[in-house]
Amino acid sequence: MNANDIQALLDWYRASQRDLPWRRTRNIYRIWVSEVMLQQTQVVTAAPYYRRFLARFPTVAALAAAPLDDVLKAWEGLGYYGRARNLHAAARQVVTAHGGRVPRTPAVFRRLPGVGDYIAAAVLSIAAGEPLPVVDGNVLRVWARWCCLREDVRTARVRNRIRRELAAVIPAAAPGDFNQALMELGARVCVPRAPRCAECPLAHRCAARRAGVAAALPVPPPRRAVPLQRAVVAVIVRRGRVFIQQRPADGFLGGLWEFPGGKIEPGETPEAALVRECREEIGTAPAAIAPLAEVRHAYSHFRAHLHVFVCRLGRGAAPRVAAAGRWVTAAELDDYAFPGANRKFFPQLREWLRSESHPGGG
DNA sequence: TATACGTGGTG
DNA sequence: TCACCAAGTAT
């Protein structure tokens, strides 16, 4: 990629870039938040979260001072909740170890939780002018086509080679624009399925385009089968309230709230699994159960089929681990961060609670 | 190095 | 319905 190619790319970017909320600031904290949200997440999905998050946590100090539950609530529905936990922890480190100022030294910023090679390069090139190339999915695709690379670009070896090649050409005068231009090109023109080469400022010198194989690159990795997990959910109702509990702070959906329940074992009926899970999780079997909904949900690495039941405990029975849980009304559910798979049956649950509170009505 | 980690858009 | 994909990081 020579100076003319780079200028053509920058010209295209400056003339046709989208007006995105994080492009209206050079504040390093705001740029950082945007890049965390944009991991494995499309611009249209992240944008509303970005606005709400920064209205709620306008500074790194405000984020550090907030309870993690508030941060997770602001992240609810965005997925990869470890991003929110790491960002929150990193904000606290900035306050406690860096005097409340986001470090602009690459090696220092890179050590914060949740900051990897991509985030460090993106944030510091955009907000601090550091000539660090980003290597994300867009850049890999653009570069694989530009060079007509037939190797698997996801391997560390090829990624590192691409990073070195980009480091040799990234313009010191505009590293942030160069990085964003490559990503913008990948997101809007050099797209995966049907690249719009007619609109591409680099098409006339693109090796894959000349070879007529742009759409076939980069070569996709072999796909593995996605397992299907059947599970039960117990919505325990008592006097118009439902029982919820918080998941462990780390790991899958860490820190989010949910209803008791769990996997259906092979050969087990949903009803049997429900009774078993209630005994295991809250020490009590339900006295009565009724099906409420069935939910299908695709997680990052498996699919789930949820059988949701409304349950009542016997007179005087109580969840044995009530200290870890709460009884909440339908309205109060909105105060807690729930996984998307749970949100899917909230309408049915709310309708059920409504009809129960007005017996004989409607 | 390979796998865990969410969700929604898109064809 | 479904597979693929998206401004990746941690372990």
Describe this structure in words.
With 362 residues, the chain is α+β, with helices and mostly antiparallel strands. Helices cover 43% and strands 13% of the residues. It has helices spanning 3-16, 28-37, 43-56, 60-65, 68-75, 82-97, 106-109, 117-128, 137-146, 156-167, 175-188, 207-211, 270-282, 340-343, 346-357, and strands at residues 228-238, 241-246, 257-258, 261-263, 288-298, 303-312, 325-328. β1 and β2 form a beta hairpin. It is elongated and about 80 Å long. It starts with a helix and ends in a 5-residue tail after the last helix. The model has no long low-confidence stretch (mean pLDDT 95). It binds a DNA duplex (11 and 11 nucleotides) through α2, α3, α6, α8 and α9.
Biggest sheet features:
7 strands, mixed
- Tally the helices: what do you get? 15
Would you list the SSEs in sequence order as H and E? HHHHHHHHHHHHEEEEHEEEHH
Principal-axes geometry comes out as elongated
Radius of gyration (Å)? 25 Å
Kindly report how far apart the N and C termini lie.
69 Å
Q: State mean pLDDT (0 to 100 scale).
A: 95
- Our estimate of the beta-strand percent is 5-15%
Percent range of helical residues: 40-55%
- Low-confidence segments, given as residue ranges, are none
**Tally of strands:** 7
Oligomer: single chain
